[in-house]
Amino acid sequence: MKISMDIKPVTYLKSQTADILKQVNETHRPIVITQNGEPKAVLQDPESYENMRNAIGILKLISQGEEDIRNGNFTSQEDVFSELEKLVDSDNG
Fold it and tell me: How many Cα atoms occupy the beta-carbon half-sphere of 4 within 13 Å?
């Protein structure tokens, strides 16, 4: 992937908006928008953005789970199944 092709100045964005949107949606690669030679924004297609947000959400959940394990805040599989069996047995009378 050539990132240099995915960096455009804000003036290019202003004059070629439709072309940039087409490129982003066809390639699913983000475009870095620069102003005065410095990166100022990233333009990304909605599907890739949603996938990124979902991935970040999953990573946060994994991180929270790992922290719970480190802090001893968990229930063993054996205890979970034992409690489930008790609930099923009590429901079946």
Answer: 0
pLDDT (tens digit, 9 = 90+) per residue, 32-56? 999 999 999 999 999 999 999 999 9
Which pTM does this prediction carry? Answer: 0.69
Side chain identity at residue 57, one-letter code: G
Place of tokens 């394990």: 69
**Helix or strand or coil: residue 32?**
strand
- The residues, ordered by sequence, that sit 6+ positions from 8 with a Cβ below 8 Å of its Cβ are 16, 20, 31, 32, 33, 34
Closest by Cα among 12, 9, 4, 55 to 29: 4
C-alpha to C-alpha distance for 62 and 56, rounded to whole angstroms: 10
The whole-number pLDDT of residue 3 equals 67
Tokens matching residue 32? 């870095």
